[in-house]
Design goal:
The complex is a heterodimer of chains A (112) and B (110). Chain A is built from no helices and 11 strands. In chain A, strands 2, 4, 5, 6, 9, 10 and 11 form a 7-stranded mixed β-sheet that branches. A 4-stranded antiparallel β-sheet of chain A has the order 1-3-8-7, with no helix packed on it. The N and C termini of chain A lie far apart (37 Å). Chain A has 112 residues and is mainly β. Chain B is mostly beta strands. In chain B, the strands form 2 sheets. In chain B, strands 2, 4, 5, 9, 10 and 11 form a 6-stranded mixed β-sheet that branches. In chain B, strands 1-3-8-7-6 form a 5-stranded antiparallel β-sheet, with no helix packed on it. In chain B, strand 6 and strand 7 form a beta hairpin. Classes of the chains: A mainly beta (112), B mainly beta (110). The A-B interface holds A 4, 33, 35, 41-45, 48, 55-56, 58-59, 90, 92, 97-106, 108 and B 1, 30-31, 33, 35, 40-45, 48, 88, 90, 92, 94-103.
Chain lengths: 112, 110
């Protein structure tokens, strides 16, 4: 079974721009979660989608948004990028046992 | 937010040594997971524990969930350089989100 894939792997953007990251979950997994990882804050939960519905959202500003498509693939968008948005963005998918999440390799976003 | 505190933050040992890392919280979790993450990659799930007092073994790694389901430990026997990485614990209650500790960075030198 193929794992979680994320594209792109690396991205460099300028302050004020927007960015879209993509995630393809493991086949059959309907839940997709997004996390932001930074050296200072560790892994922080952004949001989780299940069957195209956002079920839970972390404590991030509205500039961070996401969606899920009917094939369970998910995208997250960050608008008006700030320097502090530089991080590793991780996507994880899970099946019925939601607490067992399988992570992709992440997208390294650098904002200059 | 239910906080998970991991200790130690950093650990540098020589090959063959034993070590234990801890994950503590004031909150009760319905399940707790341990992950290992290597630089530039996503975390890889090692184990899930759900029952208070549960002990699980994965080769040289032993995981224990506290009786009160508030804490957990990971013990590595005879560490090897391949064990190097960031060890993360994560707890769940709602099932919708994992609360992660900040991790223990382990370096095992030959």
């Amino acid at each position: 079974k193929a794992g979680v894939t994320q594209t792109p792997r690396y991205l460099i953007k300028t302050r004020g721009q927007q960015v879209t990251l993509s995630c393809s979950p493991i086949s059959g997994h309907r839940s997709v979660s997004w996390y932001q990882q930074t050296p200072g804050q560790g892994l922080q939960f952004l949001f989780e989608y299940f069957s195209e519905t956002q079920r839970n959202k972390g404590n991030f500003p509205g500039r961070f948004s996401g969606r899920q498509f009917s094939n369970s693939r998910s995208e997250m968008n960050v608008s008006t990028l700030e320097l502090g948005d530089s991080a590793l963005y991780l996507c994880a998918s899970s099946s019925d046992r939601v607490y067992e999440q399988y992570f992709g390799p992440g997208t390294r976003l650098t904002v200059t | 937010t239910q906080l998970l505190e991991q200790s130690p933050q950093f650990l540098s040992i020589q090959e063959g040594e034993n070590l234990t890392v801890y994950c503590n919280s004031s909150s009760v979790f319905s399940s707790l997971q341990w992950y290992r993450q290597e630089p530039g990659e996503g975390p890889v799930l090692l184990v899930t524990v759900v029952t208070g007092g549960e002990v699980k073994k994965l080769k040289r790694l032993t995981f224990q969930f506290g009786d009160a389901r508030k804490d957990s430990s990971l013990h590595i026997t005879a560490a090897q350089p391949g064990d190097t990485g960031l060890y993360l614990c994560a707890g769940s209650n709602s099932g919708y989100a994992l609360n992660f500790g900040k991790g223990t960075s382990l370096l095992v030198t030959p």
